[in-house]
Amino acid sequence: MDVSPEAMGGRPGSRSSTFLIASGKSSLPSRRRLAGYALAVALAPLLTLVLVILRGQLNLTTDVLAFLVAVTAVALLGGLGPAVLEAIAGSLLLNFYFTPPMHRFAIAEANTAAALVTFIVVAVVVSLLGDREARRTRQAAAAIAAAEAARPIAEADRTRAALLATVSHDLRTPLAAAKVAIRCLRSRDIQLTAADHGDLLATTDESLDQLTHLVASLLDMSRLQAGAMPVFPRPANLEEIIARSLRDIGPQARAVKLSISPDLPQVMADPPIMERVIANVTANALRFSPDRSPVLLVATARGERIELRVVDRGPGVPLGDRDRMFSPFQRLDDTGTTSGVGLGLAVSRSLTEAMRGTLEPEETPGGGLTMAISLPARPRPAPAYPGSPGA
Ligand SMILES: Nc1ncnc2c1ncn2[C@@H]1O[C@H](COP(=O)(O)OP(=O)(O)O)[C@@H](O)[C@H]1O
Ligand SMILES: [Mg+2]
Question: What are phi and psi of 257, to 5 degrees?
Fold first, then answer.
């Protein structure tokens, strides 16, 4: 990724001008600068006290080096200002307590003066380097933050590109098929038999069905994402809902077998929405079922919930792919043109959750996929107590 100095919180300009700006104004947070001043103020007298106590054992070089360590520590914590303060205080204290003539602000030897000047120069250089290091660290942190902030955008871009590719392919394929079929039907140059006519009309019909399905899924998805899909769960008869969903699926649904508990309570569901969920999941199961192996719909009551399992004996879905199959526009290995665009399960799960239900994949014992839909059962009426009205 391209990160400009401006983006990193720096300013445009050459390295040296950046350095000058850095040295002019500390890049450390003010909390650290304050802590640096506090350390400088505390350290100078403390160090002097320790060095005065140890005066017999140490010479001037050790005293100067000890102050240099103090200045370095202050520079690293608080940057230039506190370090210069510490350097000035250090040079005055060294001058007063440790260089001859003692206990006067005066320097007797040129050598000592040179040592003190060197001390101040080193202090300033160390603090400038510390300051620059802090600035670099901050710039690096800003660059990392910028990269982190850009990541979701990059991911969204990739998803959108994949989405556009899928949708445009899936829209164009049936459109092109229908267009070609209709052009043939209208053409005067082509001699068509009655069977050709039938085939071309069937192709057109199938393509338009595919388009209808795709547009409906896209509309559902965008309504769900915009929070504009009203869902009204109410007591409903699951068996009737299943019957209507199978009718929606068409002749293929003949391969579906039902097993519904005889005294199944009513389910709290929005019937037209529940119908779509069952139709989506059952259509998938039929698509993946091997020939002559029926898809089973099993409805049972468990506690306060109603569970509907759509059981197939197809190839199943590996554990690692089971989350991915519920993401919009995700199809696993099958990318044939006759199937959907990978929206069915994403829409179905959102719709089920909007009805306070769950949609979870399970392994069919012996191989295959089972989709388990769980919804609240109609609440049982409160027991009537003796003396209460109606008892
Ligand atoms: N019963 C099933 N058995 C095996 N794989 C399935 C089953 N149902 C769904 N899948 C996988 O999950 C993917 C997503 O399903 P879905 O969202 O309904 O999309 P679509 O049906 O449009 O492909 C399918 O493409 C398929 O790979
Ligand atoms: Mg599907």
Answer: -110, 140
CATH code for the domain defined by 234-376: 3.30.565.10
- Residues of the chain scoring pLDDT < 50: 1-24, 337, 390-391
CB 135 within 8 A of CB 311: no
Q: In this structure, which residue's CA is closest to atom 25 in ligand 1? A: 331
Query: Which CATH entry fits the domain spanning 165-225: 2.60.40, 1.10.287, 3.30.9, 1.10.1760?
Result: 1.10.287
| 268: three-class secondary structure by DSSP | strand
Cβ of 220 closer than 6 Å to ligand 1, yes or no, is no
Report the alpha-carbon distance of residue 182 to residue 203 in Å, rounded: 9
Cα–Cα dist 269/246, whole Å: 17
In this prediction the pTM is 0.57
Amino acid identity, position 224: L
Digit-coded pLDDT (tens) for 155-166: 777 767 767 776
Ligand 1 atom closest to residue 217's alpha carbon, by position in its atom list: 22
Which ligand is the nearest neighbour of the Cα of 210?
1
126 within ligand 1 shell (Cβ under 6 A): no
According to DSSP, the β-strands at 295-302 and 256-260 are: parallel
174 lines ligand 1 (CB under 6 A): no
**Cβ of 331 less than 6 Å from ligand 1:** yes
Q: Where are the domains of the chain?
A: 15-152, 165-225, 234-376
Those residues whose C-beta lies under 8 Å from the C-beta of residue 331, and which sit 6 or more positions away, are 339, 340, 341, 342
351 close to 217: Cβ distance less than 8 angstroms: no
Q: Are the C-beta atoms of 292 and 317 separated by less than 8 Å?
A: no
**pLDDT in the model for residue 42:** 93
H, E, C per residue of 42-99: HHHHHHHHHHHHCCCCCCHHHHHHHHHHHHHHHHHHHCHHHHHHHHHHHHHHHHHHHC
Does ligand 1 have an atom closer than 6 angstroms to the CB of 314? yes
Q: For the chain, where are the alpha helices, taking DSSP H only?
A: 15-24, 30-53, 60-78, 80-93, 110-186, 194-225, 238-249, 271-288, 344-354
How far is C-alpha 262 from the geometric centre of its chain's CA atoms?
45
